Amino acid sequence: MRQKFRLAAFILLALLALAGSAFLDYFLPEKTVTTITGVEVKLSDKDGPVSKSNPADGPASDVFYIYTARDVTDIRVYRNEDTRWGWPFYFKFDSADVQARAAALASEKKPALITSYGWRITMFSVYPNVTSVSLAAPDDSSWSFFRWFWFCLWGALLIALAWGVHRLTRARVQLKA
């Protein structure tokens, strides 16, 4: 019985590890040093950009897009929307200012340091959201202390949980008197 519980506990712990790691990877800020190649504003509703084939069928808003390229094969598109008071709590209210900064860097063709969160999922037209854009210094890197601090903390918690499960479910030796 103890072995079945142990197996179930470790399977649940592995699922928790995967779900938590995916959650952290999506919502923690990521930095990228790249060149901005263009910016655009599109009117969008819940179904995506409004067009003749996708007319607006509800409230619509402007969504800013930032196009980047490190080289010809490594291109990436970001969206630039305010998070306001909602989840995730980046309290971003300056998407127009970020877009203007991105447009200025695009016209100068200088490297930019972009901080964003989220994933690019092409099949669902999901883009990472930019939280800030700035001129990249020559020694800037994409390494983020904040991101790795939370991943290390998550890893330590998972190790502690695995150790606890191991201790609770290990076979105990009974001493005969």
Structural class: alpha+beta
- Kindly provide the name of the CATH class of the largest domain: Mainly Beta
Strand content: 25-35%
Spans of at least 5 consecutive residues with low confidence: none
Number of helices: 3
Order of helices and strands: HEEEEHEEH
The N- to C-terminal Cα distance equals 26 Å
Question: What is the domain total for the residues?
Answer: 2
The tally of beta strands, per DSSP, is: 6
Q: CATH topology of the largest domain, which one?
A: OB fold (Dihydrolipoamide Acetyltransferase, E2P)
Radius of gyration: 23 Å
What's the architecture of the largest domain, going by CATH? Beta Barrel
Q: Overview of this structure, please?
A:
- The protein is α+β, with helices and mostly antiparallel strands and 177 residues long.
- The chain folds into two domains: 2-25 and 149-169, no CATH class; 30-142, OB fold (Dihydrolipoamide Acetyltransferase, E2P), CATH 2.40.50.
- It contains three helices and six strands; from the N terminus they run αββββαββα.
- Strands 1, 2, 3, 4, 5 and 6 form a six-stranded antiparallel beta sheet that branches.
- β3 and β4 (74-80) form a beta hairpin.
- The chain is elongated and about 85 Å long.
